[in-house]
Amino acid sequence: MEPAQSKVESSGDYKVADLSLWDWGRKELEIAEVEMPGLMECRTRYGEKKPFAGKQISGSLHMTIQTGVLIETLTAMGADVRWCSCNIYSTQDHAASAIVKAGTGNVFAWKNLSPLDYWECTLKACTWPDGSGPDSIVDDGGDMTMLILEGIKAEEKYEATGELPDDSKCVYDDEIALFQFLKMKVPENTQRFRKLAKRLIGITEETTTGVARLYQLSALNEFPWIGINVNDSVTKSKFDNVYGCRHSSVDGVLRATDVLISGKKVLICGYGDVGKGTAQAFKAQNAQVCVTEVDPICALQACMEGFRVVRMETVQHEIDIFISATGNKEIIKVANMEKMKNNAIVGNIGHFDNEIDMNGLKAYPGIQKVNIKPQTDRWVFPDGHGVIILAEGRLLNLGCATGHPSFVMSNSFTNQVMAQMSLYDPTFAGTKYENGQIYVLPKHLDEEVARLHLPALGAELTELEPEQASYIGLDGVRGPFKKGEYRY
Ligand code: NAD
Ligand code: ADE
Questions:
Q1: Environment class of 54 (CB within 10 Å of its CB; exposed 0-12, middle 13-18, buried 19+)
Q2: Does the CB atom of residue 293 touch ligand 1 within 6 A?
Q3: Domain map (residue ranges) of the chain
Q4: How far is the CA of 461 from the centre of ligand 1 (A)?
Q5: Exactly one of 93, 232, 240, 355 is catalytic; which is it?
């Protein structure tokens, strides 16, 4: 039966592709809940206490089914939640609709956003109807944080000099769109960003690239809030980045192309956490996997796993599938694509779209873009050979498929909930946070996230005896079990 119109729906304070998809979204949310024991335990433990009562929480994180379960957990814990996606292609429209229909969050997201709509949705997700902003942000890649910081800078400059943001030095589409967006928005309301930053106390950042941005801002004294690095919880980066990508990297390539992977030559650029999971996935399909790396430790790890470590130029002419996973820029250049085999598949699983030189490809004299289907294009060079580009160079597992599965995301998102709780309650993480600093969650919370996920897998954890605990130098039999520097 169709539920009554929700408060969010009747307010019109949302924007999704098609609200009638809510029923499909709700059914998938219910299935996902069973696969997300960490989040469901948060609801059980804190649903009555409502630690987020009165708190406004904004999220900029792929609006998927799994994120829907996170949103509804934050709401069940008392928060007033507004949300957008952190990528133009990653929204699952049925998930977005189900949240709006249930009234559990104000969502501004749909699949295939234009870059300007992307920033409009980001702004809407951090602006409440009275013009106030969030008390805290769940960010993935740092775009919501950057919008607010760049918005404040632009307002101050406009006030002092009358000058508006200048996009002429910007290189990438999203960056150009951000500066164009601010150019429109700042004169409309010169106090907007400063007003919406007033309540903000902290940001919990999901991913490697977003965390790198936070540390850079903090080092420059340009980060005025508390930052929590969720990515470096072990139960996030050693699970989501590795096992999540092990699942969703091949999934993205297959949904886009349906190519047989077995026997093919695959090049994974970057052998960090994401690269490791991705390389394993292609190896498991019996592909011949090569790796590029700049870091000798990661290169040696790749060798130990039986991967050939090569330079791009050595193998570019013979590789069938290229995947960048570095978090760095300009990894697959147009000069490389020029020399690739006909119909080589080129994708990126890193956070931003600058790992593949899409600008170079677009500017290549005589090149033609042939759209095969949404998020799959064949770019044909004048000599007649083509390369198949996935999701326009944006992260292929969320652009061409549905990202990581629920069980993995439950680990990541339980860390997010704990990180949000630690912003409001210093006793929760046992640390008093200071503005401008970036923190990781303490080991006991990381271990707790893992503990919450073991019963669902039928794992029997051995109990340490008190004498054993003291023999190996632990404080007690319930952990923490490792020192901070242990690498897992
Ligand atoms: P990481 O730091 O563990 O690994 C990146 C690796 O790339 C490093 O080992 C580094 O040495 C290597 N590298 C850097 N520049 C290189 C170059 N020019 N050539 C070859 N190798 C190079 O980071 P990670 O956790 O693996 O994350 C990688 C990217 O994936 C980040 O942007 C992150 O935000 C993103 N990410 C995406 C997903 C997803 O679902 N798509 C999930 C998690 C993380
Ligand atoms: N990152 C990778 N996979 C994801 C998913 N399914 N939902 C949200 N963020 C993700």
A1: exposed
A2: yes
A3: 7-200, 245-399
A4: 32
A5: 240
CATH architecture of 245-399: 3-Layer(aba) Sandwich (3.40)
Structure confidence at residue 2 (pLDDT): 76
Q: Over the chain (488 residues), what is each successive 10-residue block's mean pLDDT?
A: 86 98 98 98 98 98 99 98 98 98 98 98 98 98 98 98 94 94 97 98 98 98 98 98 98 98 98 99 98 98 98 98 98 98 98 97 98 98 98 98 98 98 95 96 98 98 97 96 96
pLDDT at 3: 78
CA of 294 to the centre of ligand 1 (A): 11
327 Cβ inside 6 Å of ligand 1 = yes
* Per-residue confidence (pLDDT) for residue 334, from 0 to 100: 98
> Is the CB–ligand 1 distance for residue 300 below 6 Å?
no
- CATH, domain range 7-200: 3.40.50.1480
